[in-house]
Amino acid sequence: MIYMADTADLxxxxxxxxxFPLEGITxxxxxxxxxxxxxxxxxxxVSRIVGDGMIHVQLISTTAKEMVKEAKKYKSYFDxxxxxxxxxxxxxxxxKAMRLLKESGMxxxxxxxxxxxxxxxxxxxxxxxxxxxxxxxxNISSHGIEVVRDIARNMNEYKLDTKVLAASFKTVDQIYRxxxxxxxxxxxSPELLLQLIQHPMTDISVTQxxxxxxxxxxxxx
Length: 221
Prior knowledge:
Helix content is 51%, strand content 17%. The chain has helices spanning 10-17, 29-35, 39-50, 64-78, 92-103, 116-125, 134-139, 144-157, 172-179, 190-196, 200-213, and strands at residues 2-6, 24-26, 54-58, 84-89, 107-113, 129-132, 163-166, 185-188. Strand 7, helix 9 (172-179) and strand 8 form a beta-alpha-beta unit.
C-alpha cells in the first residue's frame, strides 16, 4: 500500500513526515483554499517537507491544449522532475490531455472518478494513478468500496500498469476495506492517517510494559 497525505497543511505534514512512511502528497483547489496558500507557495513549502516523494498537483484548465500547457509549466516551474504528477479530472478534454501528456513523458493522475469505466478509460489513456472517491460515492448510495474493488480487478485482469489511488475517506474502516479490496494506494487526511495507527489496547500494552520493566533494564545506552 502506498500511503499519501491529502493535504497542504504544513504543520500536519511536518508531524506526519517525522514518523509515518508516506510516499507523497495530493492537492486540489479545495485543499489549497483550506491551507490559505496560493499554488506557488504551497508546492514550494510542501516540496521541502516531502523531499523525493510524489507531489500530485491538480490542473484547473478545461481544454486539453491548456491542460498540457499548464502541466508542463508546473513541472518546469517547481523543478520536481519525475516526482511531479498532473492531476486531471476525467472529462473528455481531460482524457485527451492524459494521452498527450503521457506521450511527452509526464506522470498523470486521473481524478474525480466515480465509476469503473471512467477509471478504465483513464488507464487506457495512460494515467499512472486513477483516484476513485470513496465517501462521495457512499454518500449517493453507489458503494465506493465496490467501485474501488472493480477498478483494481480491471487493472490486474487487463495487466495495466495503472495504480488505484483511493481517495475521499471519512472513516478508518473505509481505508481498511479499500486496502483489502486491491487498492494499490490511498490518499488520506492527516486526521485519519493518525487514527490508522492508534488503538486503545496498544496504549494499555505500552503502559504495562513500562510498569513491568521498571528496574529490570540495567544495560546503559
